[in-house]
């Protein structure tokens, strides 16, 4: 895995990050720090990546468990240290999982497995931040189940 981060040199603090898989994203600093607010802050990208990593795990674990999962959102709320280095000190993950007949214990297990075994990003961040998790399940009855669609 590799990525390249290049300063745009436009008189501000904007950077273009290019991934080895061929995607690009603009990152920028806050105006008070010399940025022009053209993209997310680098530390916001760390949270975004962590959220993507854990949501991916939760969905995959539920799918492999033959659960009828229809959606998964995770909101990360973080606090950072007040002095340099301003590492994350607290991160709360709140999952909203949508599906049909999802069991609370099954969703709880998927979240726990992600954070204790599979999500490399959250496991790394747990070295400096206390992690908490919560979830809610929304029963999605708007579409027929996979079994009903086949019939």
TrEMBL record:
InterPro entries, alphabetized: KH_dom-like_a/b, OsmC/Ohr_fam, OsmC/Ohrsf
Pfam families per record: OsmC
NCBIfam families, sorted: PRK10738.1
Protein name: OsmC family protein
Organism taxonomic ancestry: Bacteria, Pseudomonadati, Pseudomonadota, Betaproteobacteria, Burkholderiales
